[in-house]
Amino acid sequence: AGAETVKRAVQLDAASRFQESLVCYQEGIDLLLQVVKATTDEAKKHRYRQKISEFTFLSDGKYHKQIRIEENATGFSYEKLFHEYLTEIVSEVWVEDPYIRQVHQASRYLLYNFLRFCEMLVKGPCKVKTIHLLTSYDEGGKNQQMTALEEIKQSLSNYGVTLNIDFSSSIHDREIRFNNGWMIKIGRGLDYFKKPQGRFSIGYCDFDLRPCYETTVDVFHTKHTKKM
C-alpha cells in the first residue's frame, strides 16, 4: 500500500499537482515506516529504509500556497479551509494563537471559534489524539478563560483527544501545524468570521454561509521526518 501510494505521488508530481503529490508522498512514507517497525528481517528493513530515504528526498520540495479571503466573502468554513490537509495520518495538531482567551471580544467569539475548530478535528477523517494550544492569558477575564478551556479539554477527552494548554506572554504569531508536515498561517488566526446579524440569521450555525473579514492564508509544507 505504501509503495502504491508513493507511485501515485510520483504521477501527481509529474503532472505538476504538487499539493496532492506531497500528501501522497507523506502517506506513503508513513505506511512504509509502519512496515519497518513491524518486520524483524534486517535485510528487508534495510531495503525499506533505502526506499524511504529516496521518497523523502523526492518529497522534500518547498511548497507555498496563498489564499486571499476578501471582505464579506463566504464559503470559508474551517472544514473547507483545512480539509485538504487533514489526512487520515494526522494524529497531532499544534495551534498557536495569542487571542484564544475571551468568549466575547469586539463582537467576535474567540473561544467558540477554537471549540468549532476542535469539533472539526473530532469529526475526521483525521485521527487526532492530541491538540496543543499555545495562547496568552486574558488578564481581564482569566477565570472565565480557564473555565472555558477546561470545559473544552474535558469534552475532548470524552472523544479520546488530549488537549494540552500552555500560555505565553510574548506570543504574537498565529499558526496551525499538523504532524503530516502541513502548516497554515492565517493573518487573523481562527478569528476571521464576522458576527452574525442575529441568532436566527443565515450563517449563525453554518460557517460556510458566515461573512468573513479580509485576511490572508498562507499554506506551507515542511519536511516531516520520523526515526526509522
- Give the amount of beta strand, in percent: 15-25%
CATH architecture of the largest domain: 2-Layer Sandwich
Strand sequence of the main sheet, in spatial order?
A: 1-7-6-5-2-3-4
Low-confidence stretches: 224-228
CATH first level of the largest domain: which class?
Alpha Beta
What is the CATH superfamily classification of the largest domain? MITD, C-terminal phospholipase D-like domain
User: Total number of β-strand segments?
Assistant: 7
How many strands, which pairing sense, and closed or not: the largest β-sheet?
A: 7 strands, mixed
Distance between the termini: 18 Å
Pairing-aware structural class of the strands and helices?
Answer: alpha/beta
Q: C-alpha Rg, in Å?
A: 20 Å
Count of DSSP H/I helices = 6
What does the average pLDDT come to? Answer: 83
Using the alpha-carbon principal axes, give the shape.
globular
What is the fold-level CATH name, i.e. the topology of the largest domain? Endonuclease, Chain A
Pfam family, one: MIT
Organism: Sylvietta virens (Green crombec)
Protein name: MITD1 protein
Domain MIT: 2-54
